[in-house]
Amino acid sequence: MYDPDKRKLLSAISHGAIFFSTTLVSVGIPIAILFVSDDPIVKENAKEAINFHLNVWFWALVIGVLVTISFGLLFPLAGLGFLIHWGLTILAIVKVLSHPDESFRYPFIVRLL
């Protein structure tokens, strides 16, 4: 069988990679884990983390454009996006640590992988 501690660690790192950096590192870490691990749960968590991080980048771009063209009037929208992003990431980490035999699925995202 698969090591549950290793499963927890790699799954949590996949989802928490966005805390290390918001650049390519946030997607690069789950991609590396996807290729290195042979555990199916870890692979599913890595794919889900990649999809979520790509969605975060997309929505950050959309919100940034909206804030810019509204001359800052929609700035609270950026705060809301930030809270949702960090809240879902923390929820994912908590879920994979407490339920290591289940992969976490983010709600309301477009899944490319």
From TrEMBL:
Keywords: Membrane, Transmembrane, Transmembrane helix. Coiled coil: none annotated. The chain crosses the membrane at residues 12-36, 56-75, 82-98. Pfam families: MamF_MmsF. It is a multi-pass membrane protein. It is found in: Membrane. This is DUF4870 domain-containing protein. It comes from Chroococcidiopsis cubana SAG 39.79.
